[in-house]
Amino acid sequence: MSTTPIILDTDPGIDDAVAIAAALFAPQLDLKLLTTVAGNVSVEKTTRNALQLMHFWQKDIPVAQGAATPLVRKLRDAAYVHGESGMEGYAFVEHQRQPLDKPAFQAIYDCLNASPEPVTLVAIGPLTNIALLLTQYPGCKAKIKRLVIMGGSAGRGNFTPNAEFNIAIDPEAGARVFESGLEIVMCGLDVTNQALLSPEYLATLSELNQTGKMLHALFSHYRSGSMATGLRMHDLCAIAWLVKPELFQTQPCFVAVETHGEFTAGTTVVDIEGRYQREPNAHVALDLDVAGFQTWVAEVLALAP
């Protein structure tokens, strides 16, 4: 079976940990590089968390530390959702792993250049690293097959009334990316709020395997839903789209990111009805086969150790 080479840019984060597991163990994907960005917690913590996960799974995927702050704004994190460390609840063992001695945007560029075929970028945190890559190396777009993001919303937000967290943390980066001309797939809150793992499934996780035991411990500290009502797997949707695009209903849309509004900065303006008469620049996921998603999650996590 042919596999899709991917680079995963992430800010782990509890739901990021599940997305990383799926990227590692879904047989359709070939994870080449993991890069980190400040978002859910500081970049030092997201990098530590990424390295801990690679050690937990005994994987030698290189990790590169990325941007510590948004392009022009102060960082606002989501420790209130993921805990102070970003992955509260599980005692990871000590290790000696270190990130690459180069910033994330440089590591992504080098990985793209080393690949014999175009690589899919998957970004499940703020888009700062991707914006830096496109600014420093605009010619790299020919080496990028597409960019799949978890971010944005065609409706309401989860950080401000209108803005989703990943885009709201660095609206200027989001705007730069959506204006880049890359093929973009946007998995926003319209689908990620539907991507629930059921309480019944969550209750079985600790008996599944070591990965299930670890995730169950993390989920007990995750505040996007609850173990009793179900947990939203926001970031996992980007990986799910790569493996099972048929689970998603998407529509080509023109998407702009608001950067100036006093109350609306970070809003993704998704022109579903074509009112601006602008060429679509993203495939926007608007609906999800929830049962199919849940089945796929159970299948892929069962493949983990």
UniProtKB/TrEMBL annotation:
- Keywords, in A-Z order: Glycosidase, Hydrolase
Instruction: Say which domain of life the source belongs to.
Output: Bacteria
Give one GO term, molecular function aspect: uridine nucleosidase activity
**One GO cellular component term noted in the UniProt record for this chain:** cytosol
Pfam families from the entry? IU_nuc_hydro (PF01156)
Q: Please state the Enzyme Commission number of this protein.
A: 3.2.-.-, 3.2.2.1
Cross-referenced SUPFAM superfamilies: Nucleoside hydrolase
Question: Is Hydrolase one of the keywords?
Answer: yes
Q: Which NCBIfam families match?
A: PRK10768.1
- Its protein name is Inosine-uridine preferring nucleoside hydrolase
Organism, as annotated: Buttiauxella agrestis ATCC 33320
